[in-house]
Please model this.
Amino acid sequence: MIGNLPFVACVVLIILGLYTLIFKRNLIKIVIGLNLVQCGVNLFLITLGYKSDSVAPIYTMAGKEEMVLPTPQALTLTSIVIGLATTALILSFAILIYKHYKTADASKIRRLRG
Amino acid sequence: MINEHLPALIIGIPLLAAFATPLISKINDKLRNIFVIGVLGATLCLVVSLAFNVFDNGIFVYVMGAKSTGLSLPSGYRMPIRIILEVDGMSIFMAIISSVVAFFGAIYSWAFMHKETGKDKYYTLLLILTAGMFGMEFTGDMFNFFVFLEITSIAACSLVGFKIRRGESSEAAFKTMVLYTLGALFVLFAVGILYGQYDALNIATLASRIQYTAMDKVALGLLVAGLAMKAGAVPMHMWVPDAYAEAPAPITMILVANSQASLYGIFRVCFTLYGLTISTHTVGWIIIILGILSMFIGVTMALIQKKIKRLMAYHAISQTGYMLLGVGVGLAVLSDANALNSYGLKAMEGGIFHIINHAMYKGLLFLTAGAVIYTTGKRNLNELGGLAHKMKFTTIFFIIGAAAIAGLPPFNGFASKLIIYESVYKFNPMLSIIAMLVSILTLASFVKVFQSAFLGPEIIKIKKEPKTMIFAMLCLSVIIIAFGLFPDIVVDKIVAPAANALVNSMQYIAAILGGA
Model:
Protein backbone atom coordinates (compact mmCIF):
# COMPACT_ATOMS: atom_id res chain seq x y z
CA MET A 1 0.00 0.00 0.00
CA ILE A 2 2.72 2.47 1.00
CA GLY A 3 4.44 1.70 -2.31
CA ASN A 4 1.37 2.90 -4.20
CA LEU A 5 1.27 6.22 -2.39
CA PRO A 6 3.05 8.14 -5.19
CA PHE A 7 0.45 6.92 -7.69
CA VAL A 8 -2.34 8.09 -5.39
CA ALA A 9 -0.62 11.46 -5.15
CA CYS A 10 -0.50 11.72 -8.97
CA VAL A 11 -4.20 10.98 -9.29
CA VAL A 12 -5.03 13.49 -6.54
CA LEU A 13 -2.98 16.13 -8.38
CA ILE A 14 -4.75 15.39 -11.64
CA ILE A 15 -8.19 15.54 -10.02
CA LEU A 16 -7.30 18.83 -8.31
CA GLY A 17 -6.21 20.18 -11.68
CA LEU A 18 -9.44 19.07 -13.36
CA TYR A 19 -11.46 20.65 -10.51
CA THR A 20 -9.60 23.94 -11.03
CA LEU A 21 -10.18 23.76 -14.79
CA ILE A 22 -13.90 23.20 -14.44
CA PHE A 23 -14.87 25.40 -11.49
CA LYS A 24 -12.49 28.38 -11.53
CA ARG A 25 -13.37 31.39 -13.67
CA ASN A 26 -10.08 33.29 -13.71
CA LEU A 27 -8.01 32.69 -16.86
CA ILE A 28 -4.72 32.45 -14.95
CA LYS A 29 -6.28 29.91 -12.56
CA ILE A 30 -7.42 27.85 -15.55
CA VAL A 31 -3.82 27.78 -16.76
CA ILE A 32 -2.68 26.76 -13.26
CA GLY A 33 -5.23 23.94 -13.31
CA LEU A 34 -3.87 22.74 -16.63
CA ASN A 35 -0.36 22.81 -15.18
CA LEU A 36 -1.49 20.77 -12.18
CA VAL A 37 -2.77 18.06 -14.53
CA GLN A 38 0.54 18.25 -16.37
CA CYS A 39 2.53 17.87 -13.13
CA GLY A 40 0.40 14.90 -12.11
CA VAL A 41 1.04 13.13 -15.40
CA ASN A 42 4.78 13.90 -15.29
CA LEU A 43 5.00 12.63 -11.73
CA PHE A 44 3.18 9.48 -12.79
CA LEU A 45 5.74 8.83 -15.54
CA ILE A 46 8.67 9.38 -13.17
CA THR A 47 7.14 7.10 -10.55
CA LEU A 48 6.78 4.31 -13.12
CA GLY A 49 10.54 4.10 -13.57
CA TYR A 50 11.53 4.53 -9.94
CA LYS A 51 13.12 1.77 -7.95
CA SER A 52 14.08 2.30 -4.32
CA ASP A 53 17.76 1.93 -3.36
CA SER A 54 19.00 2.36 -6.89
CA VAL A 55 21.30 4.78 -8.66
CA ALA A 56 21.04 7.05 -11.67
CA PRO A 57 21.28 5.08 -14.94
CA ILE A 58 24.82 6.10 -15.91
CA TYR A 59 27.07 3.11 -16.50
CA THR A 60 30.40 4.88 -16.14
CA MET A 61 31.59 4.57 -12.52
CA ALA A 62 28.25 3.16 -11.42
CA GLY A 63 28.49 1.82 -7.88
CA LYS A 64 25.96 -0.96 -8.24
CA GLU A 65 23.76 -2.79 -10.69
CA GLU A 66 20.29 -1.52 -9.62
CA MET A 67 19.38 1.51 -11.61
CA VAL A 68 16.18 3.44 -12.16
CA LEU A 69 14.65 3.03 -15.61
CA PRO A 70 15.83 5.88 -17.85
CA THR A 71 13.09 5.78 -20.51
CA PRO A 72 10.32 7.38 -18.38
CA GLN A 73 12.77 10.10 -17.41
CA ALA A 74 13.43 10.85 -21.07
CA LEU A 75 9.68 10.88 -21.70
CA THR A 76 9.11 13.22 -18.76
CA LEU A 77 11.81 15.60 -19.97
CA THR A 78 10.14 15.80 -23.38
CA SER A 79 6.76 16.29 -21.79
CA ILE A 80 8.07 19.09 -19.54
CA VAL A 81 9.51 20.93 -22.54
CA ILE A 82 6.22 20.59 -24.43
CA GLY A 83 4.38 21.73 -21.29
CA LEU A 84 6.52 24.86 -21.15
CA ALA A 85 5.67 25.69 -24.76
CA THR A 86 1.93 25.19 -24.28
CA THR A 87 1.87 27.17 -21.04
CA ALA A 88 3.72 30.08 -22.63
CA LEU A 89 1.31 30.09 -25.56
CA ILE A 90 -1.81 29.92 -23.38
CA LEU A 91 -0.54 32.70 -21.10
CA SER A 92 0.14 34.91 -24.11
CA PHE A 93 -3.44 34.37 -25.24
CA ALA A 94 -4.59 35.25 -21.71
CA ILE A 95 -2.67 38.56 -21.96
CA LEU A 96 -4.27 39.32 -25.34
CA ILE A 97 -7.73 38.52 -24.00
CA TYR A 98 -7.14 40.83 -21.05
CA LYS A 99 -6.09 43.61 -23.45
CA HIS A 100 -9.25 43.27 -25.54
CA TYR A 101 -11.85 42.54 -22.87
CA LYS A 102 -10.30 44.35 -19.85
CA THR A 103 -11.15 41.36 -17.67
CA ALA A 104 -9.72 37.96 -16.81
CA ASP A 105 -13.08 36.52 -15.75
CA ALA A 106 -13.97 33.67 -18.09
CA SER A 107 -17.72 34.11 -17.48
CA LYS A 108 -17.54 37.67 -18.92
CA ILE A 109 -15.46 36.66 -21.96
CA ARG A 110 -18.35 35.46 -24.03
CA ARG A 111 -18.44 37.18 -27.38
CA LEU A 112 -18.42 33.78 -29.09
CA ARG A 113 -21.58 31.91 -28.23
CA GLY A 114 -24.45 29.97 -29.70
CA MET B 1 17.88 5.76 -52.74
CA ILE B 2 15.19 8.36 -52.09
CA ASN B 3 12.57 5.64 -51.93
CA GLU B 4 14.07 4.14 -48.79
CA HIS B 5 13.71 7.36 -46.82
CA LEU B 6 10.32 8.57 -48.02
CA PRO B 7 8.44 8.64 -44.67
CA ALA B 8 11.23 10.54 -42.92
CA LEU B 9 11.50 12.98 -45.83
CA ILE B 10 7.76 13.64 -45.86
CA ILE B 11 7.91 14.71 -42.21
CA GLY B 12 11.37 16.29 -42.43
CA ILE B 13 11.01 18.50 -45.50
CA PRO B 14 8.09 20.64 -44.24
CA LEU B 15 9.68 20.81 -40.79
CA LEU B 16 13.03 22.09 -42.09
CA ALA B 17 11.32 24.37 -44.60
CA ALA B 18 9.25 25.82 -41.75
CA PHE B 19 12.35 27.18 -40.07
CA ALA B 20 13.86 28.35 -43.36
CA THR B 21 10.71 30.35 -44.17
CA PRO B 22 11.45 33.38 -41.93
CA LEU B 23 14.92 33.64 -43.47
CA ILE B 24 13.58 33.58 -47.02
CA SER B 25 10.96 36.15 -45.97
CA LYS B 26 13.83 38.54 -45.35
CA ILE B 27 14.69 38.44 -49.07
CA ASN B 28 11.31 38.76 -50.69
CA ASP B 29 7.66 38.08 -49.89
CA LYS B 30 6.89 36.63 -53.30
CA LEU B 31 9.89 34.31 -53.18
CA ARG B 32 8.72 33.05 -49.79
CA ASN B 33 5.23 32.28 -51.08
CA ILE B 34 6.70 30.38 -54.05
CA PHE B 35 9.04 28.52 -51.69
CA VAL B 36 6.23 27.42 -49.35
CA ILE B 37 3.98 26.32 -52.22
CA GLY B 38 6.94 24.54 -53.83
CA VAL B 39 7.78 22.68 -50.62
CA LEU B 40 4.19 21.58 -50.11
CA GLY B 41 3.96 20.56 -53.78
CA ALA B 42 7.13 18.49 -53.45
CA THR B 43 5.74 16.89 -50.29
CA LEU B 44 2.55 16.05 -52.15
CA CYS B 45 4.62 14.32 -54.88
CA LEU B 46 6.57 12.36 -52.24
CA VAL B 47 3.32 11.29 -50.55
CA VAL B 48 1.93 10.08 -53.87
CA SER B 49 5.09 8.10 -54.64
CA LEU B 50 5.05 6.59 -51.14
CA ALA B 51 1.38 5.72 -51.72
CA PHE B 52 2.26 3.72 -54.84
CA ASN B 53 5.00 2.00 -52.87
CA VAL B 54 2.65 1.08 -50.01
CA PHE B 55 -0.16 -0.13 -52.29
CA ASP B 56 2.29 -2.31 -54.25
CA ASN B 57 4.57 -3.67 -51.53
CA GLY B 58 2.46 -3.57 -48.36
CA ILE B 59 3.39 -1.94 -45.07
CA PHE B 60 6.43 0.34 -45.17
CA VAL B 61 8.55 0.29 -41.99
CA TYR B 62 11.14 2.99 -41.53
CA VAL B 63 13.53 2.90 -38.59
CA MET B 64 14.97 6.22 -37.46
CA GLY B 65 18.76 6.10 -37.51
CA ALA B 66 19.25 2.36 -37.84
CA LYS B 67 18.63 -0.61 -40.07
CA SER B 68 16.68 -2.93 -37.78
CA THR B 69 13.72 -2.17 -35.56
CA GLY B 70 15.09 -3.73 -32.42
CA LEU B 71 18.09 -4.49 -30.32
CA SER B 72 19.23 -8.06 -29.78
CA LEU B 73 21.11 -8.71 -26.55
CA PRO B 74 23.77 -11.49 -26.45
CA SER B 75 21.34 -13.53 -24.33
CA GLY B 76 19.00 -13.65 -27.33
CA TYR B 77 16.45 -11.28 -25.82
CA ARG B 78 15.15 -9.03 -28.58
CA MET B 79 13.17 -5.87 -28.03
CA PRO B 80 12.06 -3.05 -30.34
CA ILE B 81 13.52 0.08 -28.81
CA ARG B 82 13.92 2.46 -31.69
CA ILE B 83 11.56 5.10 -32.98
CA ILE B 84 9.87 3.69 -36.02
CA LEU B 85 7.58 5.06 -38.68
CA GLU B 86 5.11 2.49 -39.89
CA VAL B 87 3.08 3.41 -42.97
CA ASP B 88 0.13 1.19 -43.91
CA GLY B 89 -2.87 1.78 -46.16
CA MET B 90 -4.73 3.86 -43.58
CA SER B 91 -1.74 6.06 -42.74
CA ILE B 92 -1.00 6.87 -46.35
CA PHE B 93 -4.68 7.53 -47.01
CA MET B 94 -4.70 10.18 -44.27
CA ALA B 95 -1.37 11.59 -45.51
CA ILE B 96 -2.82 12.08 -48.99
CA ILE B 97 -5.65 14.14 -47.47
CA SER B 98 -3.30 16.23 -45.33
CA SER B 99 -0.90 17.00 -48.17
CA VAL B 100 -3.61 17.92 -50.68
CA VAL B 101 -5.34 20.18 -48.18
CA ALA B 102 -2.11 21.86 -47.07
CA PHE B 103 -1.03 22.45 -50.68
CA PHE B 104 -4.26 24.15 -51.72
CA GLY B 105 -4.39 26.03 -48.41
CA ALA B 106 -0.99 27.56 -49.17
CA ILE B 107 -2.04 28.56 -52.69
CA TYR B 108 -5.23 30.16 -51.37
CA SER B 109 -3.30 31.98 -48.66
CA TRP B 110 -1.28 33.91 -51.24
CA ALA B 111 -4.08 36.34 -51.96
CA PHE B 112 -6.12 35.79 -48.81
CA MET B 113 -3.34 36.78 -46.40
CA HIS B 114 -1.97 39.49 -48.68
CA LYS B 115 -2.90 42.39 -46.41
CA GLU B 116 -1.95 40.78 -43.11
CA THR B 117 1.30 41.40 -41.29
CA GLY B 118 3.49 38.65 -39.83
CA LYS B 119 3.09 36.38 -42.85
CA ASP B 120 6.49 34.74 -42.27
CA LYS B 121 5.19 33.39 -38.95
CA TYR B 122 1.94 32.38 -40.61
CA TYR B 123 3.69 30.23 -43.22
CA THR B 124 6.12 28.81 -40.64
CA LEU B 125 3.23 27.64 -38.47
CA LEU B 126 1.36 26.30 -41.50
CA LEU B 127 4.35 24.13 -42.43
CA ILE B 128 4.83 22.94 -38.83
CA LEU B 129 1.16 22.02 -38.64
CA THR B 130 1.50 20.00 -41.85
CA ALA B 131 4.64 18.22 -40.63
CA GLY B 132 2.89 17.41 -37.33
CA MET B 133 -0.07 15.87 -39.14
CA PHE B 134 2.22 13.64 -41.22
CA GLY B 135 4.01 12.64 -38.02
CA MET B 136 0.76 11.64 -36.30
CA GLU B 137 -0.24 9.56 -39.29
CA PHE B 138 3.07 7.79 -39.90
CA THR B 139 4.39 7.09 -36.44
CA GLY B 140 4.49 3.58 -35.02
CA ASP B 141 5.25 4.71 -31.50
CA MET B 142 2.75 5.86 -28.87
CA PHE B 143 4.95 8.51 -27.26
CA ASN B 144 5.99 9.86 -30.62
CA PHE B 145 2.29 10.12 -31.43
CA PHE B 146 1.81 12.30 -28.34
CA VAL B 147 4.72 14.55 -29.37
CA PHE B 148 3.32 15.10 -32.86
CA LEU B 149 -0.15 15.62 -31.36
CA GLU B 150 1.25 18.47 -29.28
CA ILE B 151 3.14 19.91 -32.26
CA THR B 152 -0.11 20.15 -34.22
CA SER B 153 -1.92 21.56 -31.16
CA ILE B 154 0.56 24.38 -30.65
CA ALA B 155 0.77 25.27 -34.34
CA ALA B 156 -3.01 25.02 -34.83
CA CYS B 157 -3.84 27.21 -31.83
CA SER B 158 -1.30 29.87 -32.77
CA LEU B 159 -2.95 30.01 -36.18
CA VAL B 160 -6.47 30.16 -34.71
CA GLY B 161 -5.40 33.20 -32.68
CA PHE B 162 -3.42 34.66 -35.58
CA LYS B 163 -5.48 37.85 -35.94
CA ILE B 164 -4.52 39.28 -32.59
CA ARG B 165 -6.34 42.54 -33.31
CA ARG B 166 -9.62 40.66 -32.82
CA GLY B 167 -10.43 39.74 -29.23
CA GLU B 168 -12.60 36.89 -30.47
CA SER B 169 -9.57 35.19 -32.06
CA SER B 170 -7.68 35.14 -28.78
CA GLU B 171 -10.77 33.89 -26.96
CA ALA B 172 -11.19 31.02 -29.42
CA ALA B 173 -7.49 30.19 -29.32
CA PHE B 174 -7.46 30.12 -25.50
CA LYS B 175 -10.43 27.75 -25.33
CA THR B 176 -9.03 25.52 -28.04
CA MET B 177 -5.58 25.36 -26.51
CA VAL B 178 -6.91 24.40 -23.07
CA LEU B 179 -8.95 21.55 -24.55
CA TYR B 180 -6.18 20.39 -26.92
CA THR B 181 -3.64 20.32 -24.09
CA LEU B 182 -6.02 18.49 -21.78
CA GLY B 183 -6.72 15.93 -24.51
CA ALA B 184 -3.01 15.44 -25.16
CA LEU B 185 -2.38 14.97 -21.42
CA PHE B 186 -5.06 12.26 -21.34
CA VAL B 187 -3.19 10.55 -24.16
CA LEU B 188 0.13 10.88 -22.32
CA PHE B 189 -1.39 9.46 -19.12
CA ALA B 190 -2.73 6.49 -21.10
CA VAL B 191 0.69 6.00 -22.71
CA GLY B 192 2.19 5.94 -19.22
CA ILE B 193 -0.32 3.32 -18.05
CA LEU B 194 0.44 1.10 -21.05
CA TYR B 195 4.20 1.56 -20.69
CA GLY B 196 4.06 0.70 -16.99
CA GLN B 197 2.36 -2.61 -17.71
CA TYR B 198 3.92 -3.81 -20.95
CA ASP B 199 7.31 -2.10 -20.99
CA ALA B 200 6.93 -0.91 -24.58
CA LEU B 201 5.94 2.22 -26.46
CA ASN B 202 5.86 0.64 -29.87
CA ILE B 203 2.26 0.24 -31.11
CA ALA B 204 2.88 -3.17 -32.68
CA THR B 205 4.67 -4.56 -29.61
CA LEU B 206 2.03 -3.15 -27.27
CA ALA B 207 -0.73 -4.65 -29.42
CA SER B 208 0.87 -8.10 -29.25
CA ARG B 209 1.32 -7.97 -25.47
CA ILE B 210 -1.89 -6.28 -24.38
CA GLN B 211 -4.05 -8.24 -21.90
CA TYR B 212 -7.07 -5.94 -21.55
CA THR B 213 -6.84 -5.62 -17.78
CA ALA B 214 -8.83 -3.05 -15.79
CA MET B 215 -6.00 -0.54 -16.21
CA ASP B 216 -6.06 -1.07 -19.97
CA LYS B 217 -9.75 -0.18 -19.97
CA VAL B 218 -8.89 3.07 -18.20
CA ALA B 219 -6.18 3.71 -20.78
CA LEU B 220 -8.58 3.01 -23.65
CA GLY B 221 -11.12 5.40 -22.16
CA LEU B 222 -8.49 8.12 -21.76
CA LEU B 223 -7.18 7.63 -25.30
CA VAL B 224 -10.61 7.71 -26.92
CA ALA B 225 -11.74 10.68 -24.80
CA GLY B 226 -8.58 12.67 -25.46
CA LEU B 227 -8.55 12.03 -29.18
CA ALA B 228 -12.32 12.50 -29.61
CA MET B 229 -11.89 15.87 -27.91
CA LYS B 230 -9.37 16.85 -30.56
CA ALA B 231 -11.42 15.33 -33.37
CA GLY B 232 -14.35 17.52 -32.34
CA ALA B 233 -16.97 14.84 -31.66
CA VAL B 234 -19.97 15.68 -29.47
CA PRO B 235 -19.91 16.09 -26.37
CA MET B 236 -16.38 17.55 -26.54
CA HIS B 237 -17.15 19.84 -29.47
CA MET B 238 -17.40 23.29 -27.82
CA TRP B 239 -14.10 24.48 -29.28
CA VAL B 240 -14.93 23.54 -32.89
CA PRO B 241 -17.30 26.40 -33.85
CA ASP B 242 -15.09 28.99 -32.14
CA ALA B 243 -11.82 27.79 -33.62
CA TYR B 244 -13.10 27.07 -37.12
CA ALA B 245 -14.93 30.39 -37.28
CA GLU B 246 -12.06 32.52 -36.04
CA ALA B 247 -9.14 30.94 -37.90
CA PRO B 248 -8.27 32.35 -41.34
CA ALA B 249 -10.17 30.37 -44.01
CA PRO B 250 -7.23 28.34 -45.42
CA ILE B 251 -6.25 27.41 -41.86
CA THR B 252 -9.79 26.27 -41.12
CA MET B 253 -9.48 23.89 -44.05
CA ILE B 254 -6.21 22.50 -42.64
CA LEU B 255 -7.77 22.32 -39.14
CA VAL B 256 -10.41 19.99 -40.60
CA ALA B 257 -7.61 17.70 -41.80
CA ASN B 258 -5.96 18.03 -38.38
CA SER B 259 -9.15 16.92 -36.62
CA GLN B 260 -9.26 13.98 -38.99
CA ALA B 261 -5.70 13.05 -38.03
CA SER B 262 -6.99 12.69 -34.45
CA LEU B 263 -9.87 10.63 -35.79
CA TYR B 264 -7.23 8.42 -37.38
CA GLY B 265 -5.69 8.15 -33.89
CA ILE B 266 -8.99 6.81 -32.49
CA PHE B 267 -9.25 4.25 -35.29
CA ARG B 268 -5.62 3.20 -34.86
CA VAL B 269 -6.09 2.73 -31.11
CA CYS B 270 -9.37 0.80 -31.39
CA PHE B 271 -8.45 -1.40 -34.35
CA THR B 272 -4.73 -1.97 -34.07
CA LEU B 273 -3.68 -1.35 -30.49
CA TYR B 274 -6.67 -3.00 -28.81
CA GLY B 275 -7.91 -4.86 -31.87
CA LEU B 276 -6.95 -8.33 -30.65
CA THR B 277 -8.48 -8.09 -27.19
CA ILE B 278 -11.33 -5.60 -26.74
CA SER B 279 -14.94 -6.58 -26.88
CA THR B 280 -15.33 -4.84 -30.21
CA HIS B 281 -19.12 -4.90 -30.01
CA THR B 282 -19.28 -2.60 -26.96
CA VAL B 283 -16.58 -0.20 -28.11
CA GLY B 284 -18.08 -0.16 -31.59
CA TRP B 285 -21.45 0.85 -30.17
CA ILE B 286 -19.82 3.58 -28.08
CA ILE B 287 -18.28 5.01 -31.26
CA ILE B 288 -21.59 4.66 -33.13
CA ILE B 289 -23.40 6.57 -30.38
CA LEU B 290 -20.72 9.28 -30.40
CA GLY B 291 -21.23 9.48 -34.16
CA ILE B 292 -25.03 9.70 -34.00
CA LEU B 293 -24.87 12.39 -31.30
CA SER B 294 -22.31 14.38 -33.32
CA MET B 295 -24.44 14.11 -36.44
CA PHE B 296 -27.66 15.18 -34.85
CA ILE B 297 -26.48 17.86 -32.41
CA GLY B 298 -24.11 19.31 -35.01
CA VAL B 299 -26.79 19.78 -37.62
CA THR B 300 -29.48 21.10 -35.26
CA MET B 301 -27.04 23.67 -33.87
CA ALA B 302 -26.06 24.62 -37.42
CA LEU B 303 -29.68 25.40 -38.35
CA ILE B 304 -29.90 28.32 -35.93
CA GLN B 305 -26.53 29.95 -36.73
CA LYS B 306 -26.31 33.36 -38.37
CA LYS B 307 -22.57 33.65 -38.94
CA ILE B 308 -21.45 31.91 -42.12
CA LYS B 309 -18.30 30.17 -40.86
CA ARG B 310 -19.82 29.24 -37.52
CA LEU B 311 -22.66 27.53 -39.38
CA MET B 312 -20.19 25.58 -41.52
CA ALA B 313 -18.19 24.61 -38.41
CA TYR B 314 -21.28 22.99 -36.87
CA HIS B 315 -21.73 21.08 -40.12
CA ALA B 316 -18.14 19.87 -39.78
CA ILE B 317 -19.10 18.32 -36.41
CA SER B 318 -22.14 16.75 -37.98
CA GLN B 319 -20.13 15.24 -40.86
CA THR B 320 -17.56 13.81 -38.43
CA GLY B 321 -20.49 11.80 -37.10
CA TYR B 322 -20.85 9.99 -40.45
CA MET B 323 -17.23 8.85 -40.33
CA LEU B 324 -17.60 7.64 -36.74
CA LEU B 325 -20.85 5.87 -37.66
CA GLY B 326 -19.38 4.06 -40.67
CA VAL B 327 -16.19 2.93 -38.99
CA GLY B 328 -18.01 2.23 -35.70
CA VAL B 329 -20.33 -0.24 -37.47
CA GLY B 330 -17.24 -1.96 -38.87
CA LEU B 331 -15.73 -2.17 -35.38
CA ALA B 332 -18.96 -3.48 -33.83
CA VAL B 333 -19.02 -6.49 -36.19
CA LEU B 334 -15.25 -6.99 -36.33
CA SER B 335 -15.36 -10.32 -34.49
CA ASP B 336 -18.22 -11.66 -36.61
CA ALA B 337 -16.68 -12.70 -39.94
CA ASN B 338 -20.02 -13.17 -41.76
CA ALA B 339 -21.39 -9.78 -40.82
CA LEU B 340 -18.04 -8.16 -41.47
CA ASN B 341 -17.88 -9.47 -45.01
CA SER B 342 -21.52 -8.83 -45.85
CA TYR B 343 -21.76 -5.22 -44.65
CA GLY B 344 -19.14 -4.33 -41.98
CA LEU B 345 -16.26 -3.78 -44.36
CA LYS B 346 -18.53 -1.87 -46.72
CA ALA B 347 -19.60 0.43 -43.88
CA MET B 348 -15.98 1.07 -42.99
CA GLU B 349 -15.17 1.85 -46.60
CA GLY B 350 -18.05 4.33 -46.62
CA GLY B 351 -16.84 5.96 -43.40
CA ILE B 352 -13.25 6.18 -44.62
CA PHE B 353 -14.29 7.39 -48.07
CA HIS B 354 -16.32 10.07 -46.29
CA ILE B 355 -13.14 11.30 -44.55
CA ILE B 356 -11.48 12.30 -47.83
CA ASN B 357 -14.75 13.60 -49.30
CA HIS B 358 -15.37 15.69 -46.20
CA ALA B 359 -11.86 17.17 -46.32
CA MET B 360 -12.44 18.21 -49.93
CA TYR B 361 -15.97 19.65 -49.84
CA LYS B 362 -15.69 21.15 -46.38
CA GLY B 363 -12.38 22.69 -47.40
CA LEU B 364 -14.07 24.12 -50.50
CA LEU B 365 -16.98 25.50 -48.45
CA PHE B 366 -14.67 27.15 -45.93
CA LEU B 367 -12.69 28.64 -48.81
CA THR B 368 -15.85 30.10 -50.37
CA ALA B 369 -16.79 31.50 -46.95
CA GLY B 370 -13.29 32.96 -46.77
CA ALA B 371 -13.78 34.54 -50.20
CA VAL B 372 -17.08 36.06 -49.03
CA ILE B 373 -15.44 37.47 -45.90
CA TYR B 374 -12.44 38.68 -47.94
CA THR B 375 -14.52 40.57 -50.50
CA THR B 376 -17.23 41.94 -48.20
CA GLY B 377 -15.61 42.05 -44.76
CA LYS B 378 -18.84 40.75 -43.25
CA ARG B 379 -19.48 37.46 -41.44
CA ASN B 380 -23.15 37.75 -40.58
CA LEU B 381 -25.61 36.21 -43.03
CA ASN B 382 -28.20 38.91 -42.28
CA GLU B 383 -25.86 41.59 -43.63
CA LEU B 384 -25.01 39.69 -46.81
CA GLY B 385 -27.00 39.45 -50.04
CA GLY B 386 -26.79 39.40 -53.80
CA LEU B 387 -23.22 38.15 -53.95
CA ALA B 388 -24.02 36.07 -57.06
CA HIS B 389 -24.06 39.23 -59.19
CA LYS B 390 -20.36 39.92 -58.78
CA MET B 391 -18.80 36.70 -57.45
CA LYS B 392 -19.87 34.28 -60.16
CA PHE B 393 -17.08 31.75 -59.60
CA THR B 394 -17.50 31.63 -55.84
CA THR B 395 -21.24 31.13 -56.28
CA ILE B 396 -20.69 28.13 -58.55
CA PHE B 397 -18.11 26.64 -56.16
CA PHE B 398 -20.46 27.18 -53.23
CA ILE B 399 -23.24 25.33 -55.07
CA ILE B 400 -20.86 22.42 -55.77
CA GLY B 401 -19.71 22.28 -52.14
CA ALA B 402 -23.22 22.58 -50.72
CA ALA B 403 -24.58 19.88 -53.04
CA ALA B 404 -21.69 17.60 -52.07
CA ILE B 405 -22.19 18.05 -48.31
CA ALA B 406 -25.93 17.51 -48.62
CA GLY B 407 -25.30 14.26 -50.50
CA LEU B 408 -26.77 15.12 -53.89
CA PRO B 409 -25.61 13.16 -56.94
CA PRO B 410 -23.29 13.39 -58.85
CA PHE B 411 -20.98 14.86 -56.19
CA ASN B 412 -18.65 12.93 -53.91
CA GLY B 413 -20.73 13.35 -50.73
CA PHE B 414 -23.48 11.31 -52.37
CA ALA B 415 -21.08 8.47 -53.22
CA SER B 416 -19.82 7.95 -49.68
CA LYS B 417 -23.16 8.62 -47.97
CA LEU B 418 -24.87 6.06 -50.20
CA ILE B 419 -22.34 3.39 -49.15
CA ILE B 420 -22.92 4.32 -45.50
CA TYR B 421 -26.75 4.25 -45.79
CA GLU B 422 -26.80 0.88 -47.57
CA SER B 423 -24.42 -0.94 -45.28
CA VAL B 424 -25.59 0.61 -42.01
CA TYR B 425 -29.19 -0.24 -42.92
CA LYS B 426 -28.27 -3.92 -42.77
CA PHE B 427 -26.72 -3.42 -39.33
CA ASN B 428 -29.49 -1.33 -37.81
CA PRO B 429 -32.18 0.44 -39.90
CA MET B 430 -32.74 3.18 -37.29
CA LEU B 431 -29.16 4.44 -37.60
CA SER B 432 -29.44 4.69 -41.35
CA ILE B 433 -32.71 6.62 -41.11
CA ILE B 434 -31.17 9.12 -38.67
CA ALA B 435 -28.24 9.57 -41.06
CA MET B 436 -30.61 10.36 -43.94
CA LEU B 437 -32.61 12.78 -41.80
CA VAL B 438 -29.42 14.63 -40.87
CA SER B 439 -28.57 14.83 -44.55
CA ILE B 440 -31.90 16.50 -45.31
CA LEU B 441 -31.40 19.02 -42.49
CA THR B 442 -27.93 19.75 -43.89
CA LEU B 443 -29.45 20.55 -47.27
CA ALA B 444 -32.05 22.81 -45.62
CA SER B 445 -29.39 24.75 -43.81
CA PHE B 446 -27.25 25.27 -46.92
CA VAL B 447 -30.27 26.37 -48.95
CA LYS B 448 -30.72 29.05 -46.30
CA VAL B 449 -27.10 30.21 -46.67
CA PHE B 450 -27.35 30.21 -50.46
CA GLN B 451 -30.57 32.16 -50.47
CA SER B 452 -29.54 34.81 -47.96
CA ALA B 453 -25.92 35.35 -49.04
CA PHE B 454 -25.87 34.81 -52.78
CA LEU B 455 -29.38 35.55 -54.08
CA GLY B 456 -31.40 38.73 -53.99
CA PRO B 457 -30.53 42.30 -54.92
CA GLU B 458 -27.03 43.70 -54.46
CA ILE B 459 -27.12 45.37 -51.07
CA ILE B 460 -23.40 45.84 -50.45
CA LYS B 461 -20.42 46.93 -52.48
CA ILE B 462 -17.96 44.14 -53.17
CA LYS B 463 -14.72 43.64 -55.01
CA LYS B 464 -13.84 40.65 -57.19
CA GLU B 465 -12.15 37.60 -55.71
CA PRO B 466 -8.41 37.24 -56.58
CA LYS B 467 -7.17 34.63 -59.06
CA THR B 468 -5.18 32.38 -56.71
CA MET B 469 -8.25 31.95 -54.52
CA ILE B 470 -10.31 30.95 -57.57
CA PHE B 471 -7.58 28.52 -58.65
CA ALA B 472 -7.51 26.71 -55.26
CA MET B 473 -11.31 26.48 -55.17
CA LEU B 474 -11.43 25.29 -58.79
CA CYS B 475 -8.97 22.45 -58.12
CA LEU B 476 -10.98 21.28 -55.09
CA SER B 477 -14.21 21.41 -57.15
CA VAL B 478 -12.62 19.30 -59.86
CA ILE B 479 -11.56 16.73 -57.26
CA ILE B 480 -15.09 16.69 -55.80
CA ILE B 481 -16.72 16.12 -59.18
CA ALA B 482 -14.12 13.52 -60.20
CA PHE B 483 -14.68 11.57 -56.98
CA GLY B 484 -18.42 11.86 -57.46
CA LEU B 485 -18.34 10.58 -61.05
CA PHE B 486 -15.88 7.72 -60.51
CA PRO B 487 -16.37 6.59 -56.89
CA ASP B 488 -15.59 2.95 -57.73
CA ILE B 489 -12.06 3.74 -58.85
CA VAL B 490 -11.34 5.77 -55.71
CA VAL B 491 -12.83 3.14 -53.42
CA ASP B 492 -10.87 0.32 -55.08
CA LYS B 493 -7.54 2.14 -55.29
CA ILE B 494 -7.18 3.99 -52.01
CA VAL B 495 -10.17 3.42 -49.71
CA ALA B 496 -10.29 -0.38 -49.72
CA PRO B 497 -6.57 -0.72 -48.80
CA ALA B 498 -7.18 1.68 -45.91
CA ALA B 499 -10.17 -0.29 -44.62
CA ASN B 500 -8.30 -3.57 -44.98
CA ALA B 501 -5.30 -2.15 -43.13
CA LEU B 502 -7.55 -1.35 -40.15
CA VAL B 503 -9.26 -4.75 -40.15
CA ASN B 504 -6.10 -6.83 -40.50
CA SER B 505 -4.26 -5.60 -37.45
CA MET B 506 -2.12 -8.76 -37.41
CA GLN B 507 -0.29 -7.52 -40.51
CA TYR B 508 0.60 -4.29 -38.76
CA ILE B 509 2.02 -6.22 -35.82
CA ALA B 510 3.83 -8.78 -37.97
CA ALA B 511 5.56 -6.04 -39.96
CA ILE B 512 7.48 -5.11 -36.81
CA LEU B 513 7.73 -8.36 -34.90
CA GLY B 514 8.32 -10.52 -37.93
CA GLY B 515 5.40 -12.92 -37.60
CA ALA B 516 6.29 -13.89 -34.03
